[in-house]
Specification:
Blueprint: E1 15-18, E2 23-26, H1 36-46
Antiparallel strand pairs: 1-2
């Protein structure tokens, strides 16, 4: 779960909005490829490291 992510667009099957959209959750199924670059970018944007 990532907080302060209101400016991050959801990505179907990977990143979904929770509540009012200010929180996002990563969703991965067993065996599914993980978009590490996508997740790293989301974390960088929400942590102010960009």
């Amino acid at each position: 779960m990532v907080f302060e992510a209101g400016d991050i667009e959801p990505v179907k099957g990977v990143l979904r909005s929770l509540g009012n959209g200010d929180r996002k959750a990563a969703d991965f199924a067993e065996g599914q490829d993980v978009g590490y670059d996508l997740l790293a970018g989301v974390l960088a944007r929400t942590s102010g490291k960009l």
